[in-house]
Queue: 2 jobs
Job 1
Amino acid sequence: MQSSIDPKIIVALDFPSQDPALALVDRLDPSKCRLKVGKELFTRSGPQLVQTLQRKGFDVFLDLKFHDIPNTTSAAVAAAADLGVWMVNVHASGGEKMMVACRERLETFGAEKPLLIAVTVLTSMGAEDLAGIGITDSPEIQVSRLATLTRNCGLDGVVCSAQEAPKLKAEQGADFKLVTPGIRPLTADKGDQQRIMTPTDALKAGSDYLVIGRPITQAPDPLAALEDIHSEVMGL
Ligand SMILES: O=c1ccn([C@@H]2O[C@H](COP(=O)(O)O)[C@@H](O)[C@H]2O)c(=O)[nH]1
């Protein structure tokens, strides 16, 4: 489900429990950001927390990166749609049959269906990491390959790094959504991310949505960090 306003910043609520997550959320404005619930918080606090966030007016990206056989994965995305989330994702490396099964299952939800996107190459991975799993192409080539597969399966877009955004927008078209983690303001720690970009550069490169976690959640003043990023990218 899509809000009438379209905030570009998605705050990754990577917290160990719902109390610190809600302490931050209660200071946030749904007109300025969306929220991402990932594996840690969902495993702790589950669907109830997602419903709480939605009742507070936020669009929720349920980032569970499903990767399983088509029957299991399509049932999982349907469960996410039942929850009313705005966006849900699977791994593109789950392959064509799995992605098509997910897309077809979500079509039964009509206008209420969440955006379905596929993870290409994790932003924490570089060329050496890909070689370690037997992929000798560069991240850029592997991301393009998986993005093409994803688009051919009829999904709404991909998770990629902003570094790949110009190539993907040219190859896949303007409507194919690019959701980009690995966003780092100039002064922020890189942490475990490898393929990174600043918020401004990412939007200029063609990112549709910026997924930002630690630069906001671990900042001494998370609200100020979000406001800084928001005013930096406003109008882009
Ligand atoms: O390729 C990917 C896919 C998902 N993520 C998720 O995004 C956030 C990024 O958090 P930061 O603290 O800003 O690094 C996190 O929840 C990841 O699970 C990603 O980083 N890369």
Job 2
Amino acid sequence: MKFTKMHGIGNDYVYMDCTKERLENPGEIARLVSDRHKGIGSDGLILIQSSEEADFEMAMYNADGSYGKMCGNGIRCVAKYVYDNGLTDQTEISVISGGAVKYLKLTVEDGKVQKVRVNMGEPILKPDEIPVVGEGDKLVAAPIVVDNQVYEMTCVSMGNPHAVVFMNGVDDLKIEEIGPKFERHERFPDRVNTEFVERMDHKNLKMRVWERGSGETMACGTGACATAVAAILNGYAEREVTVHLLGGDLEICWDETDNCVYMTGPAATAFTGEFDPEELRKSVQGR
Ligand SMILES: N[C@@H](CCC[C@H](N)C(=O)O)C(=O)O
């Protein structure tokens, strides 16, 4: 099986071209390739498929094999992949993921994709649509008790669920302890991605993320969008912000005119290769 390892500011996935043939067992393959010691090593698996509703379909799986309906860093890499591999010569493309079509614009200079701007659509704020257990039409700075401590969370879905927590000292946060407790908290029936965010000023936010199904990652595109929306709802930021993540920066704009969130950032190819699923299974599982 041929693959390409790509990343969006350090949020790395194994990408496979499934436009001609669908993969039978994506969840299992995601778990195998993601293993950082015995597999290829990644935050998950992304399949590029053909679609009748859009130019391409993206199917993303977390490192634990669970399906994620949307991936902001992944969708930029999908755009670079289809352009670099000649699956399209267009610089404006549409990609469907989790049933929602997203529109992407590639900036290409000297034949090289420099950055990708994605219309990530309108943020979803209604608790039952995120889903999160809570009263009212949205949860902004709503209290939640995790590990006997009260946090204030703002909940946003960008096609996948996010809880954004503003705090000081994110660099020192023991995210591997608190992250899983948010992820599996009883108020999130589908689990949750959690962003821990420090406000630098009204245009800059520093964010660390604990991703559902993958743990701490270097970056999360949907998480950066959710963070910008949450910061604006809390009165902490302007409509255009830079979100600083462990792996780099993303430019996010929540547009007042169409209510859509726009994300701009890079996409990079690390290497290509091939694997034999049987060999990989033996390597990772020892059988
Ligand atoms: N890293 C991604 C989000 C991937 C999916 C997420 N872990 C989920 O299960 O919702 C991004 O860049 O948005």
